[in-house]
Design goal:
The protein is built from 22 helices and 18 strands. Helix 1 crosses helix 2 and helix 12 packs across helix 18. The chain is globular. Strand 1 and strand 2 form a beta hairpin. It starts with a strand and ends in a 7-residue tail after the last strand. It has 625 residues and is an alpha/beta fold. A six-stranded parallel sheet has the order 11-10-14-15-9-16. A five-stranded mixed β-barrel has the order 1-2-3-5-4. 28% of the residues are buried. The longest helix has 24 residues.
Length: 625
């Protein structure tokens, strides 16, 4: 059907909902016609680049949505063509949006040049003429602004035409233009895989673009993008900063066969040859049979050298005698009304003696208490040595961790990204504090350090001055970072920096078999404690959903969850079930969530429920993000 876009009702950047005024009501079936607005149809879909006033032709299918108060028939667009974009309405709206050009002058321009205005602007761009200055109120400066805005609009329009059909949203398209500038269309057509290398689009989408632009399936740019994607995504998901050469080859071949758009036989011999070329060209790094992304190899090497360098730096309190340190630590304990265990006290003294320290321990081992005593002890040491107190900065990898840190210490804490003034730019570039613009503080304390991946850790190391002492707090038995590398664990294993380990648990419940068995499992000890079955038990069931034991486990989980829910005052946020599998088993997350939802939050009214796909969301549900 064909019509004019009268109003854009919703625009997410990739998905749009708009009202289309039909040129002829006979274009649609009689039962689809809204009797109140017979010439208007609501259309929806990926209509990137379409603006109000455009005349478009759409293809797709009707969609019925029984939503109270709305006409139920909507048209779901699968493809569209812009028949006419340069209408009087759209041109005047564009000109009116320019700096210093209101609607009045915009209409004067249109009266003078009509729909030929863009051709006039094109000519002035080429020749340097000033046709628009014949309009009263337009100076040469204003025409320059009009020309600049027109160039931006034209470039955006051209890139939308190139990428819009691949469901690339306008915000992302603007970021792509910001990265590649006036050469955007040319660069993408020459090598669409830059969009994957720079993490704008997935490899599969760029593969589709490449196919449409006639790039062969065995092109070097395609193989390079596939290898880099494997090294970035596959290696990172495995916690690695590199892949063995043979693994990099086999994963790349598998990706080209199973997760790409183009079809064609790429064998391992060809991929090996290309990887060799990329190494020679400096696009990848090979060391001891391992293949790295160049920037990640450089990051890892930089971090190793930086830590080795920092381990040799003198601490703030080199001249303080052991007796003075002991006195200040004792005084800090008294003023805080705490008594440190030997492990905690050793951690405080270790931190005083070194410029880079890791304090590691599990939940409830007293890391926060140790930190409070350490900071106060350092204040007392400064007083005794006649110095200003150290400027202390607290940070953590996530906002939630920073919030907990602030609540525990009473001091301001920020995310590491905010501390670094981290700003990502298009094309993978970033701006952050570094050697030329370092973090200015005497002492940096980083909590939840097990979450640090090598990329973020390297940025932090670049921004640290030699004069800054840094303390990393974390639990090496927690899961490592989502990103590449197991940084905290690897730094501890290197034995390059000072490490203090806290092992004694002080929290209520320290005698629980849950905690005791967790420690045993971490240590590889399978001789677990089962003397409190109400707190910890192990139930072995057959690996089959048909087994009666599976049904009993399901019912037991529902019962225990409901009992705990009631004991917690019917507060859903105080009860959590942890499951190892997302799907495919009776006690997987996807199967258990509806069961537990029905147990404590059954649906009493459709008004309190929203359905998305196969998932039912209800008012009062707990959502985990």
């Amino acid at each position: 059907m064909r019509g004019k876009v009268s109003k854009i009702l919703y625009n997410s950047g990739t998905y749009m909902l708009m009202s289309l005024r039909l040129q002829n009501v006979n274009q649609i079936e009689e039962d689809k016609v809204n009797p109140n607005f017979p010439l208007f149809v609501t259309i929806m879909g990926s209509l990137i680049g379409v603006e109000e006033g455009y005349i478009i032709e759409v293809d797709g299918e009707w969609h019925y949505s029984d939503k109270e108060g709305y006409w139920p028939w909507q048209f779901k667009v699968s493809s569209f063509d812009i028949i006419e974009a340069e209408t009087e309405e759209t041109i005047i709206r564009f000109l009116s949006s320019l700096p210093g050009i209101g609607e009045k002058i915009a209409r004067l321009i249109f009266s003078e040049f009509g729909t030929n205005i863009y051709n006039v602007i094109e000519e002035d761009m080429r020749t340097g003429n000033r046709h628009l200055t014949v309009i009263k109120g337009i100076s040469s400066t204003k025409e320059d602004a009009i020309i600049a805005s027109y160039k931006e609009k034209k470039l955006l329009s051209n890139v939308i035409k190139l990428l819009g059909k691949y469901n690339v949203g306008e915000i992302k398209i603007k970021n792509i233009i910001r990265a590649y500038g006036d050469e955007t269309v040319k660069r993408i057509k020459e090598n669409p895989y830059i969009l994957a290398n720079d993490k704008f689009l997935t490899f599969k989408v760029t593969d589709t673009i490449a196919f449409d632009n006639g790039i062969p399936y065995d092109a070097a740019d395609r193989i390079e993008a596939a290898v880099k994607n494997v090294l970035d995504v596959r290696a990172s998901s495995m916690g690695h900063t590199y892949l063995d050469f043979d693994d990099a080859v086999s994963f790349t071949v598998n990706m080209l066969q199973s997760n790409s758009f183009m079809k064609g036989t790429i064998d391992e011999i060809y991929v090996k040859s290309k990887i060799g070329d990329f190494i020679s060209e400096g696009k990848l790094v090979e060391e001891d049979g391992h293949i790295y992304l160049t920037f990640r190899y450089n990051s890892e090497n930089f971090v190793a050298k930086k830590l080795a360098h920092r381990s040799k730096l003198p601490s703030f309190f080199t001249e303080a005698s052991p007796e003075l340190i002991e006195e200040c630590v004792e005084r800090a304990q008294q003023d805080l009304h705490v008594t440190l265990a030997s492990g905690q006290k050793n951690a405080v003294i270790t931190a005083i003696h070194n410029t880079t320290v890791i304090i590691t321990g599990g939940p409830g081992t007293g890391k926060t208490t140790t930190l409070k005593v350490l900071m106060l002890s350092m204040d007392y040491l400064c007083d005794r040595l006649g110095r200003e107190h150290l400027v202390k900065t607290l940070a953590a990898p996530t906002g939630m961790a920073a919030k907990r840190m602030k609540e525990a210490t009473g001091m301001d804490a920020s995310t590491i990204h905010r501390l670094l003034e981290f700003t990502p730019y298009a094309g993978g570039d970033i701006k952050a504090k570094d050697e030329d613009d370092p973090i200015v503080t005497d002492m940096l304390i980083v909590d939840e350090s097990s979450m640090l991946d090598i990329d973020l850790f390297a940025l932090l190391m670049h921004a640290l001055q030699d004069e800054t002492e840094v303390i990393f707090l974390g639990d090496i038995d927690q899961l490592p970072s989502v990103g590449p590398g197991d940084v905290l664990h690897d730094v501890i294993d290197s034995e390059v920096v000072a490490v203090a380990r806290l092992t004694q648990t002080y929290r209520q419940g320290a005698q629980s078999p849950i905690l005791a068995n967790a420690k045993k499992i971490n240590a590889g000890d399978t001789d677990l404690i089962f003397d409190k079955p109400e707190e910890f038990r192990f139930i072995e069931i057959p690996d089959s959903d048909d087994a009666p034991e599976c049904n009993r486990m399901l019912e037991m989980t529902r019962r225990v969850f409901y009992e705990e829910f009631q004991l917690c005052g019917a507060d859903i946020n105080k009860v959590q079930v942890l499951l190892p599998m997302r799907r495919k088993t009776m006690v997987s997350v996807d199967n258990m969530n509806p069961e537990l939802q029905e147990t404590v939050n059954s649906c009493m009214s459709r008004k309190n429920e929203m359905v998305y796909g196969t998932t039912h969301f209800r008012k009062g549900d707990k959502l985990c993000s």
